[in-house]
Amino acid sequence: MKYKISELAKLLGVSTNTVRRYEDMGYISAVRDEKSGYRYYNDDDIFSVMNAKMHVKYGFSHEQISQMQSFSLEETIDAYKKRMDEMDKQIAYMTYLRHRLKDDYLLMNKAATYSDIYEKMSLTMYTVIYKDGEKLLQEPERLQKLGEFIYNSPEVLHTYIIPKESVDNGNFRVCCGWSVKEEHMDKYGMTENSYTQIYKGKPSVMGISEVPADIGRLANENPEYLKELMIGKHLDYMKEHNLYLNGDIIGIVITKVRDSGKNVIYMLMSLPFGKNDV
């Protein structure tokens, strides 16, 4: 059966301009009737358009779909196999990314509902520092590893590290870095180098803190105030329960939001502890 362009457009639920675009892309080809001068399409064109629309849903580019019009069965099978492999990688990536989204969602809900301090075993973290206090760290191998953490892992964490010695000696110092959970190092094909610091999981005092987004300014102008905001309630808990700080403090950034006209950061602070002898 022969179809005019208007008839084909109605059958496919598209405009006549879309039909012309399909023809320009090589998906279909009209034949001109020598007697009437009209250009007609046939039943095969209907299948070709619907097949192309399905290929678009599969994620093939228009250039690939155009090339596939002349593919053999073997070539089409090979194209499908490659696309399935790409989709498997995309699905895995989105699955991993959803895990991070869910973790952030749960932590944000925790921040919105209560701010209790609790004890829990922390996770082992692999961290690369890019700022120590006011000192920016930019060695080539450090920057290479930072880039690997940021771009290879969909679950990379922005972290603040407070060295134990800076708390013990009263010289409160905040370091910034990117961290990846131990189980994600192999998952995302990441490796260690001399700039990778490993923070082993330890019994820790945990709780969510809200601090102004300009942490750097506070660290310079009023470090004691920043200390109180970040870990004041954690230290109070430790004192009340006869605990002592047993390692560097890690703060995992949950989110940055606008609150009362100011930018604030919510972070999960984790203070490793030991128990004093009673």
Give structural notes.
It comes from Lachnospira intestinalis. Keywords: DNA-binding, Transcription, Transcription regulation. Residues 2-71 form the HTH merR-type domain. With 278 residues, the protein is an alpha+beta fold. It contains 10 helices and 12 strands. The chain has helices at residues 5-12, 16-24, 43-58, 62-68, 73-113, 140-152, 164-168, 182-187, 215-221, 223-240, and strands at residues 31-32, 39-40, 118-121, 125-132, 135-136, 157-162, 175-181, 196-199, 203-212, 243-245, 249-259, 262-275. The strands form 2 sheets. Strands 3, 4, 5, 6, 7, 8, 9, 10, 11 and 12 form a 10-stranded antiparallel beta sheet that branches. A two-stranded antiparallel sheet has the order 1-2. A hairpin with a 2-residue loop joins β4 and β5 (135-136). α1 (5-12) crosses α2 (16-24) and α9 (215-221) packs across α10. The radius of gyration is 29 Å and the shape is elongated.
